[in-house]
Amino acid sequence: MKLVYASRTGNVEKLVNRLNADHVLKITTGEETVDEPVLLITYTDGVGQLPAIVAAFVEKNRPYVKAAAVSGNKERHPDTFGFAANVLKDTYQVPVLTVFNKDGDEETDAVIRNALNA
Questions:
Q1: CA 45 to chain CA centroid, nearest Å
Q2: Cα–Cα distance between 11 and 32 in angstroms, integer?
Q3: How is residue 8 annotated by DSSP?
Q4: CA end-to-end span of the chain, whole Å?
Q5: What pLDDT was estimated at residue 107?
Q6: Which end of the chain is more exposed for a tag (fewer CB within 10 A), N or C?
Q7: What is the pLDDT at residue 1?
Q8: What confidence category does residue 118 fall into, taking pLDDT thresholds of 50, 70 and 90?
Q9: Among 33, 37, 45, 106, which Cα is nearest to 70's?
Q10: Closest-CA residue to 68 (of 4, 117, 21)
Q11: How far apart (Å, rounded) are the C-alpha atoms in residues 69 and 65?
Q12: Which pairing describes strands 65-72 and 96-101: parallel, antiparallel, or unpaired?
């Protein structure tokens, strides 16, 4: 499965670099398209929002977005931590594997690696 991600502050990109995945696409405009199953990793924008470029990407590629992992900042936004996951689940029916703080940890890495290898 291909790994697709969006990163604004560098936290998600740091996680993606740690994963050392073979097939990776960075969302920069939301206009990107795919033709194979993908696992999406995104950050949470503003106060619990799905970033606009990620929403545009998912709308264009919905049949291929098989799962997601969502980053948030638990210290800075404890009340809306990772709420982009709710948007992905409720609006787009994308299963969310994990919601993690900033760039995640070993457990986050393991969940995403397992999904990529499934």
A1: 12
A2: 21
A3: S
A4: 8
A5: 97
A6: C
A7: 92
A8: confident
A9: 45
A10: 4
A11: 11
A12: parallel
Distance CA 65, CA 48 (A): 20
Ranges assigned E (strand) in 33-113:
38-43, 65-72, 96-101
* Closest C-alpha among 80, 91, 10 to residue 68: 91
Domains of the chain in start order, with CATH, are 2-117 (3.40.50.360)
User: What average pLDDT does range 91-110 have in this prediction?
Assistant: 97
Residue 95: CB partners within 8 Å, gap ≥ 6? 66, 67, 68, 89
Closest to 55 (Cα-Cα) out of 10, 92, 9: 92
3-class secondary-structure state, position 65: strand
Residue written as tokens 């606009």? 52
pTM of the complete model: 0.96
At how many degrees (to 10) do helices 84-92 and 52-61 cross?
30
- DSSP characters over 18-49: HHT-SSEEE-SSS----SS-EEEEEEPBTTTB
Dist. CA 20–CA 7, nearest whole Å: 16
